[in-house]
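idk why but the lab printer keeps eating my pages so im just putting this in chat instead. protein + alpha-L-arabinofuranose:
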Amino acid sequence: MKGLHCSLALCLGLLTAVPAFGQDAKVTVNGAQPGPVLAPEIQGQFAEHLGRLIYEGIWVGEKSSIPNIRGYRKDVVEALKAIRVPLIRWPGGCFADEYHWRDGIGPRAKRPVGVNTNWGGVAETNEFGTHEFMDFSELVGAKTYVNGNIGTGSAREMADWVEYMTNPSKSTLAQTRRANGRDKPWTLDWFAIGNETWGCGGNMRPEFYTDQLRQIRTFIKPAAGQPTKIIASGGNSDDLKWTDVVMAGSANMIDAISLHHYALPSFGRPTRGTWKDKGSATEFGESDWFALMVTATQMDDLLTKHSAVMDKYDPKKKVALVVDEWGNWFDPTPGTNPGFLEQQNTLRDAVTAAINLNIFHKHGERVRMANIAQMVNVLQALILTDGPKMLLTPTYHVFDMYKDFQGATQFPVTVAGPKYSYAERSLPAISASAARAKDGSVLVALTNINPNEAVPVTVSLDGVTAAGVSGRILTAPAMNAHNSFAQPDAVKPVAFTGAALNGTTLSVTLPAKSVVVLVVK
Ligand code: AHR
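predcted complex ->
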């Protein structure tokens, strides 16, 4: 979560757009040498007890006038099912390290009410607890990722929680689960030992955390037959030392280590570009557009560097790198509780979502889960709600367009071509990824990050047979186009007819600031 440095010219705000020169881009898809199967969990979601995410966004209670299924709002469940959400991470985030699971079981009316100290200091009713999370995940059809509490919890508390969720025996904890309404154990797919333990999870040093991790890991014992994978709390953005220390001390005891990276439009905003002034989600110009593309694109470099550190201890890539928090973070929507991290979501968010998914595909061998922050009403949300109303954001639509990449076999991709330049810096204008979907079709995702110029793209599909192409595009006239409750469909995907297939070559003109996913059969 660090700001970027800027040159003097940028610091003085001397920002001028440099037009593109109409150069073509060449994308080569190497279908003859397929890469890894892309873990569906790359399209995972993050649902923290934060603001209006759990309460209002998911849980409205069985007696609500908002249509619901056992208390979970129906419109949200249906929207999540439609994009085949593969996995949900819960209960935090920073919230996780103050969460005591026993507060969230048993009759709802009797659950203790706590304070959500991280997020607005509001009351936490504990109405949504372990049973509700597991039930909700089953309803959506998503795998489960529970984040344990190391900050204010203990080895025993975490071990008991895992026993409560997974044990089929007649142990007192399993019987308590039954008494609370759940006979069969749930499937616990992932369990993390702490969150951001370098910060809100305890301000630990990596050596101290690693020793704690080793101790606690010893006592986390999911029942036989459970698929549970254990995640170590990882470093922040470019903190390679953290990854090094944790991997050196625990690589043989964990299944994954996490990484968090948020994108802020800080480049070129020298007196700002900090967590105090992150910029508006909707009121921005090209300088902030470009700045956000810079920080979002950094994900590629971060994954390369963290993976290289992991390779030292785990050359066979048994331990996954899970980017369990990623997304854009702007100033909160004016008039909302600043502790609730509410922000609108524009075409700019859609473009960076596509960039990140393409980067995760590139690193699919090591990156086997990612969780956008967050699912509903918080940060780069896929869904926004307002009382009984719900809308799908441009970011949601990108996940919808990419959903067939879940479980697809990655094809290596190279991109050559024009840069998108702004002031003194430039980025590749085109971001791309490709894969063979489970139904045999070839998926080609192309994003043009240049908000001003269309880019002609030639895609060579090497080693692939191709008979026809179809696709969808997400774009809009304005950089800050977004969906509101008055106009919920202002930005949504439509059929794309701008791709022509000749043999195994695709010719595409990618409109400015657009996300396209093509399906070649
Ligand atoms: O996603 C919001 C917060 O960002 C999470 O609680 C924390 O882990 C991170 O700092």
